[in-house]
User: Fold this.
Amino acid sequence: MREGAGWFYARNGSYSSPTISVIRARTSTSNISASNIFYVYTSSLLRFHAHCGPLRQVVKPMGDPTAAAELGVAPPSLPRQPHWVKTMELGYATGGDSSLDPENAVVGPGLTFACFKCGKETSELDGKHLSRCAKCSTVRYCSRECQVTDWKGGAGGGHKFLCAAYKRIGEAMTLTSADDKQSVCEEILRRVRFYACPYVVHKTATLGRGFLFLQSPSTLAELSLPLPRLPTGSPIAGQRSVLLHYLTMGEFDSELSRDDFEMAQVRNELKALVKAYNKRYDLVLLMRFRCGHVAVGSAPLVPDYAVCVSLGKDYYSEATEGALQLNLDDV
Assistant:
């Protein structure tokens, strides 16, 4: 297992913006405050959404081969759902809170639990014990009142909507099945696609064919949770974030796989996808997480290509940092 941040690729050092580093660069010389950057970007998305009708007429060939033929445009060459061609497990870190030193992280039976609603620990309950949720068997409560209140009115809409996610990772904070890992990768992509897809389209226009490299200093299990809160009831220390780079295959060879021989194992799959994808419909992506899970595949552009072009021009044309950082609890 690798220690520290030696496994993490960052082209120009660390990125520490509270939301989106490149959008901060885009607006830093204007009268828009950093705290309003997310609002500004979201407002732009809403404006584009209001014009989706006309835009969808422009991009009708995306899902209609007949219309594509009439306009002389090639139909999509790759699936319209995320399609994974290779996954690997490099075993960097597992379980617990990935912000902690792995040697000191506590997982399994030794965990200290608190009431998921009020935060009381066993030591504060005068000899009573915390009761498990009967459905997920993971989170605990100090009383029936706390459990009933949290089921419908807790954070994130209530435990009713979070229960399945906590059941999936269990007390050990691990994802064991390949299907669960694939599902979480797709969930993460859905959360960031309105930022990532315009970024990729813009970079493709300026750098040529390549792929999106999505990394996170968090484990896949941590990112699978709807809230930044461990099954113990404690908050996840630090921000749950992803860092996005757009790389060409030349950059992959000269920068990434040169210093990280493990990543060379996915080169053939990446090269084939980068050669075959249609930039108007799809993107190629490589994902890597603190737990060592690596996934290579392709996914459809969302929003549509015309929207991605406009957003990319507006927000990434003057960016100087070259990477996009997203704190997932802000998006």
Residues 21-95+191-327 form one domain. Residues 178-207 form the longest helix (30 residues). Strands lie at 83-89, 131-132, 140-141, 211-216, 241-247, 282-289, 293-300, 323-327. Residues 286 and 296 are 5 Å apart (CA to CA).
